[in-house]
Amino acid sequence: MNGPVHPTRRHTALPKAQTLIEALPWLTRHNGRTVVIKFGGNAMVDQELKAAFAQDVVFLRQAGLRPVVVHGGGPQISAQLTRLGLESEFKAGLRVTTPETMDVVRMVLAGQVQRELVNLLNRHGPLAVGMTGEDAHIMAATKRYARVDGEAVDIGRVGDIESIETGAIQALLDDGRIPVISSIARSADPSDESEGADGTAAGDGCGVYNVNADTAAAALAAALGAETLMVLTDVEGLYADWPASDEVLSQLTAAELEKLLPELASGMVPKMEGCLHAVRNGVRTARVLDGRVPHSILLEIFTDEGIGTMVVPDKREGEPTP
């Protein structure tokens, strides 16, 4: 028979119960909903942050949500190119991706970054399955050109998402799995798979495109009809008036974000453009989070305050706020 509970023990346990109770309405609201998470920034290279990220994603799944992870791997790609004696070149913030570079991109994203993340998730059970946008024709892309001084510049095998086929991802979600998707897409042009424009053979990086992971995550969230898109980055959120102020906007509408886009730092543009695309294509909310904060995903999605910037669709008359 149990004796009386010591007052100190009761006191220390109470905050845990209060935290769980605070999460209850959010757990109820998000139960069964798809959440697309773009994994990037410092969280990709710090071992403790990677482990915390994996715990967060598994927690979402065990709490009844359907998480999908999309990742890039810029630092890892640059490091591998350096080891191979190849130059990392960027134009308008985009990596110039020659066929030779494209082979390295595929190797690093699918063979290194993805495998490490899948292994971290699978420490908690047989949950994660790694794929690239090439697999099952998930992502198809067309060639993207950089804009430099108002002119279109060829940057090689860099693509914009043309279409998404969600069948394979939906099947994994229905089976209780966590899809982990590398941001590589097949070419939407069938002729591109046999020979590149420069005569390069298909096996040398042709037929596929390197796609910005923020853009890929946003397009996938829209195609899946996700409840929310979450983008991990290395800042606290979207600043109201950077660098004059470090005030972080907790929430703004799509229209308000669109007005701010021309003033944003180049690194934030693809992230916020992705958020804008998502909420204007059926995603209920899009959030930018500080991936340097351990468990930032749980803090954002299951607490009243949140910790990042949330973008919501433009409110129509009579509609409730998301």
Characterization of this structure:
- With 322 residues, this protein is α/β, with parallel strands linked by helices.
- It has a single domain (30-312), classed as Acetylglutamate kinase-like (Carbamate kinase, 3-Layer(aba) Sandwich).
- It is 36% helix and 24% strand.
- The chain is built from 9 helices and 14 strands.
- It has helices spanning 7-30, 47-62, 74-83, 99-121, 167-174, 213-224, 254-260, 269-279, 296-301, and strands spanning 34-39, 66-71, 90-91, 94-95, 128-132, 139-148, 151-164, 178-182, 184-187, 208-210, 228-233, 251-253, 285-290, 309-312.
- Strands 5-8-2-1-11-13-14-12 form an 8-stranded mixed sheet, sandwiched between helices. A 4-stranded mixed sheet has the order 7-6-9-10, covered by helices on one side. Strands 3-4 form a two-stranded antiparallel sheet.
- Strand 3 (90-91) and strand 4 form a beta hairpin.
- Helix 3 packs across helix 4 and helix 6 (213-224) runs parallel beside helix 8.
- Mean pLDDT is 87; it is low at 194-203.
Question: Topology of this structure?
Answer:
Blueprint: H1 7-30, E1 34-39, H2 47-62, E2 66-71, H3 74-83, E3 90-91, E4 94-95, H4 99-121, E5 128-132, E6 139-148, E7 151-164, H5 167-174, E8 178-182, E9 184-187, E10 208-210, H6 213-224, E11 228-233, E12 251-253, H7 254-260, H8 269-279, E13 285-290, H9 296-301, E14 309-312
Parallel strand pairs: 1-2, 1-11, 2-8, 5-8, 6-9, 11-13, 12-14
Antiparallel strand pairs: 3-4, 6-7, 9-10, 13-14
